Amino acid sequence: MATSCALLRRKSPISSGLQDATQHVQLTHYPLRSFTEASLKLQEQVADASVEFVDGIIFSPSKIVICAGRLVDALPSGTKPRRYLERGDPWFYLDVEKRVTDSSLPIVDYVPLTDYLFRWDRGGFWVARYAYRYFLTPFNRVTRYALDTFMHARVMYHALHKSGLSDTYIIQDVGVPFDAVETFYEWLHETLHIYPLWVCPIRIRRSSPDAAHGLHADFAEASTPELMLNFGVWGPGPKDYDELVRLNRLIENKVHELGGNKTLYAQAYYTEEEFWANYNKPAYDAVRTKYHADHLPSVYDKVKVDEVAKKAREQTRMPSILHDKRPFQGLYGVYKAWRGGDYLLQKKASTKESQQIS
Q1: How far is 279 from 290, CA to CA, in rounded Å?
Q2: Which of 30, 75, 118, 350 registers the highest number of CB atoms within 10 A of its CB?
Q3: Edge-to-edge strand order for the sheet containing 53-60?
Q4: Three-class SS state of 202
Q5: What is the DSSP letter of 72?
Q6: How far is Cα 31 from Cα 250, in angstroms, rounded to an integer?
Q7: Rounded-to-integer distance, Cα 267 and Cα 250, Å
Q8: DSSP strands (E only) in 154-238
């Protein structure tokens, strides 16, 4: 999972240089009551040339917030910026949800640029909330403050994978063309009923059809949509591993059916034939050959679920008597993340960022 929504557009072509950063982002939250309204608002914001960042949170079918940002040089007089990086700051999604729950009007915030770009780091969007549930820990401001060190994406995801608990969660990011997003959302709601969901427009190609970012198999064709809507689907899956695989494959097949594709940081359950039906193998092989890399493992080899390696990891992860026992499995992951240095890396990074800001 990315920790921030990518810059949607540049004010000038990339060939003419990078865009200057500013100190703050003016962030407008639009509370909406249906996915249809949210889809229209997203497309409206994408079409607005003054909007530089946009994403959204689907808390439930009737509670959705679209967040649109613009870079600004100065704050209005008397405005206090909202912060999200320090231990005592709120988690971004909780702050947004609380403040828009009883509002039907847009809410405007001013957020320091660094806080905006890393607003999802603390809590890993909302995935860290599942850790509290797993460890039967109260989820409130006091416990979030006390456990803040372990609630950053770097540490949390390391612990998730080292513990093996990642094999019990559905973790997918998929891109769907805008003309199919309502169909896909309804399917997600009926099939998985996982909330919250993250949505973010993705620019698939730039000024020419062949300038693609890899989410579409036929990116050399002019018919490729310029934009897709990314759905971040992250939540607990069934305890039965075969059922977990079945649901992940259903997601992959549904996205392909609707003309979309998935990003590949998550596990891929495709067969090799299915994988290359979704991704442009001739173009990929041409690049590998050009740069003398065709002897290396392919991207499919890297992202596919390797059942043999998975079972080997299961046998060496921890003593079998504790292997899948709650909470020992989770505690083992936390220990491995701490032992691996992520705990210290996070501490050093926080110290360095504080020094730079000051």
Answers
A1: 18
A2: 30
A3: 107-112, 24-32, 63-72, 53-60, 197-203, 227-236, 169-177, 261-262
A4: strand
A5: E
A6: 31
A7: 14
A8: 169-177, 197-203, 227-236
Q: What type of residue is 216?
A: H
Write the single-letter amino acid at 145.
Y
Tens of pLDDT, residue by residue over 303-348, are: 888 766 665 655 555 555 555 666 667 677 776 776 765 544 455 5
If 0-12 CB within 10 Å is exposed, 13-18 middle and 19+ buried, where does residue 353 land? middle
Q: Report residue 189 as tokens.
A: 């709601």
Angle made by CA atoms 233, 169, 346, in degrees to the nearest 5 = 85
| Identity of residue 189 | H
- Residue 341: what pLDDT? 56
Question: From the CB of residue 19, how many other CB atoms can be counted at a distance below 10 Å?
Answer: 14
- Positions in the chain short of pLDDT 70: 1-17, 205-224, 307-328, 330, 335, 338, 340-358
Residue 261 · residue 216 · CB < 8 Å: yes
Rounded Cα gap, residues 221 and 233, in angstroms: 28
Q: How far, in Å, CA of 54 to CA of 48, rounded? A: 11
Kindly provide the b/e burial profile for residues 35-58, where b requires at least 16 CB atoms within 10 angstroms of the residue's own CB.
beebbebbbebbeeeebbbbbbbb
Which residue has 């036929």 as its token pair? 218
* CATH match of 24-119 with 3.40.50: no
Residues facing 149 on adjacent strands? none
CA 223/CA 92 separation, integer angstroms: 37
What are 170's strand-pairing partners? 235
Residue ranges covered by each domain of the chain: 24-119
Do 39 and 182 meet the contact criterion of CB atoms below 8 Å apart?
yes
d(CA 247, CA 227): 26
